[in-house]
TrEMBL record:
Domain of life: Eukaryota
Upper lineage: Eukaryota, Viridiplantae, Streptophyta, Embryophyta, Tracheophyta
The protein, known as: Butyrate--CoA ligase AAE11, peroxisomal-like
Pfam families linked: AMP-binding, AMP-binding_C
Keywords: Ligase
Chain ranges of the AMP-dependent synthetase/ligase domain: 20-399
Sequence ranges assigned to domain AMP-binding enzyme C-terminal in this UniProt record: 449-525
Keyword Ligase found: yes
CDD domains according to UniProt: ttLC_FACS_AEE21_like
Source organism (scientific name): Canna indica (Indian-shot)
Similarity remark: Belongs to the ATP-dependent AMP-binding enzyme family.
GO molecular function list: ligase activity
Length: 586
């Protein structure tokens, strides 16, 4: 055994870029990318990516240089997922909903050498570049490949850059599978964004793991309803190539465009957050088209309520729930379906699908630990603990941030910051973010459970629950709700009554806030830190309004809040303006 050696014949560094070479060789004539009237085959996509890698080296991009891109789900962004690492560089796909200051910070922090900008975001990119004090990256505009606009920011344009590249040029070999392939900045739902570094090995293993556990067969038709900048499209930017499938690219997940694409291209698979499911569910008749066959949907980003899953199944969408983080290269848990569950009632199936599930195959272990003793909690579906992970698909660490990296890898586990339980069958169910647990009169209240009850109300479209301060109980639940169209007559008392009939009294929201829109990140996660700020401000207004004649505080009333507005500018920035229009005793 000692005389056996590792050599090129029996060892190659793992990297998802090998999927493209295989796709060109095996599936060369199949359609790889569809975007409007534009079509490419896998042979053409492979050639374009080799041209791209060659062109990047012409721009003096070398090993471990960062190449940033600000673009929606267009063919160029897909090609950059292969072309950048084929040049030995690291891809940094930037969230397109960030403001100029945030984009500038990412460019500076990542030290991007080249910056690809879709024509739609040229103004935002120009503002970001103006804010940079250090040397600016080389800018390449990605004009629309289907209908060129002529918009430019500097001299370089993507298609012209590709034309200069050499299709026969060999990609840079991956010498160490631990080398970085991507740099993804967290969405910032709870704190300032951090740069998460993925390895070639982690990306490769995560891709194969999801393909297997989601049971993706050959020749899938994949609709890009999930932003590619989000964890590299949960690794499916590489995964579709591995299965020789077709990428159907759309610039934004509008209900009309998604239904049209599903019908026209016979889409078989798509990923999205629960808010996109709501878009599809609430689409008007003019925007809908019937599904010719079931569409497999992988959803995550926030725990989807069981009633939402049940309604989507009725439309023909077959939902699989996953849970993950940027730091876990996307999904870390998948709710694998068991055949015996098909015999259960529909509502019971929906509740099972709402669980987060079991670990992806690329992880070595997942556990739920007691927050004090770090021992595993009992598998009884009740004992609450923190969810921890470890394995090859976990990030290398935070870029230029040793302190946060060490904190994240405490005790030999990646600390997710989420709280959950383990059911007797081994399936994990998230109960809340650690900071979102509401402690009221000594009782722990899961905001996720209260939200699930709110979603069961037939006129509630979206719901989020956070803690509001309370002088007697410490904290009480505050519900922020977006109603379905035509529900203006719904009263706060109706919501409270619904909750009282579905949960213990101490869990019932004491404050109800109706909103036109809930603040979200670009990936559809509700920004609860903004709602917590709004709840605190509402509480302070209520306290001020209930001061007694001698200045003493009256007993705090149970309140209803008729509406919270958001200004247009703050809506763009995702900031809640908590202008309370009505506060009254119930």
């Amino acid at each position: 055994m000692d005389r056996l050696i590792k050599c090129p014949a029996n060892y190659a560094p793992l990297s998802p870029i090998t999927f493209l070479q295989r796709a060109a060789a095996v599936y060369g004539d199949r359609t790889s990318v569809v975007y409007g009237r534009t079509r490419f085959t896998w042979r053409e996509t492979h050639e374009r990516c080799r041209r791209l890698a060659s062109s990047l080296r012409y721009l003096s991009v070398s090993n471990n240089d960062v190449v940033s891109v600000l673009a929606p789900n267009v063919p160029a962004l897909y090609e950059l997922h292969f072309g950048v690492p084929m040049a030995g560089a690291v891809l940094n796909a930037i969230n397109t909903r960030l403001d100029a200051a945030s984009v500038a910070n990412i460019l500076a922090h990542s030290e991007a050498k080249v910056f690809f900008v879709d024509y739609q975001y040229v103004k935002l990119a120009a503002e970001a570049l103006d804010r940079r004090a250090a040397r600016a990256p080389v800018v390449v505009v990605v004009d629309d490949v289907d209908s060129p606009t002529g918009v430019r920011l500097g001299e370089l344009e993507y298609e012209k850059l590709l034309a200069r590249g050499d299709p026969a040029s060999l990609p840079c070999p991956v010498r160490d599978e631990w080398d970085a392939i991507a740099l993804n900045y967290t969405s910032g739902t709870t704190a300032a964004p951090k740069g998460v570094v993925y390895s070639h090995r982690g990306a490769y293993l995560s891709t194969l793991s999801l393909l297997l556990q989601w049971e993706v067969g050959s020749e899938p038709v994949y609709l890009w309803s999930l932003p590619m900048f989000h964890c590299n499209g949960w690794t499916f930017a590489w995964g579709v190539a591995a299965r020789g499938g077709t990428n159907v690219c759309i610039r934004a997940p509008a209900a009309r465009d998604m239904y049209r694409a599903i019908a026209e291209h016979r889409v078989t698979h798509m990923c999205c957050v629960p808010t996109v499911l709501i878009l599809l569910l609430e689409a008007g008749r003019a925007d809908r088209q019937p599904l010719a066959s079931p569409v497999s949907v992988l959803t995550g980003g926030a725990p989807p309520p069981a009633p939402l899953l049940e309604k989507m199944e009725q439309l023909g969408f077959r939902i699989t729930h996953a849970y993950g983080l940027t730091e876990a290269t996307g999904p870390a848990l998948v709710c694998e379906w068991r055949q015996e569950w098909n015999l259960l009632p529909v509502d019971a199936q929906a509740r099972l699908k709402a669980r987060q599930g079991i670990s992806v195959l690329s992880l070595a272990d997942v556990d739920v630990k007691d927050t004090e003793t770090m021992t595993s909690v009992p598998r009884n579906g009740k004992s609450l603990g923190k969810i921890v992970l470890r394995g090859s698909s976990i990030m290398k660490g935070y870029y230029k941030n040793a302190a946060d990296t060490d904190a994240a890898f405490k005790d030999g586990w990646f600390q997710t910051g989420d709280l959950g339980v383990v059911h007797p069958d081994g399936y994990v169910e998230i109960k809340d973010r650690a900071k979102d647990i509401i402690i009221s009169g000594g009782e722990n209240i899961s905001s996720v459970e209260v939200e699930a009850s709110l979603y069961r109300h037939p006129r509630v479209l979206e719901a989020a629950v956070v803690a509001m301060p309370h002088p007697r109980w410490g904290e009480t639940p505050c519900a922020f709700i977006k109603l379905k169209e035509g529900s203006a007559s719904l009263r706060e008392e109706d919501i409270v009554s619904h909750c009282r009939s579905n949960m213990p009294r101490f869990m019932v929201p004491k404050t109800v806030v109706f909103m036109a829109e809930l603040p979200k990140t670009s990936t559809g996660k509700i920004q609860k830190f903004l709602l917590r700020e709004a709840a605190l401000s509402i509480y302070k207004k209520m306290q001020k309004a209930t001061r007694g004649p001698q200045g003493g505080a009256l007993p705090p009333p149970i309140c209803k809040v008729a509406e919270v507005e958001r200004s247009n500018e703050n809506n763009r920035r995702g900031v809640v303006e908590d202008r309370v229009l009505t506060v009254a005793k119930l």
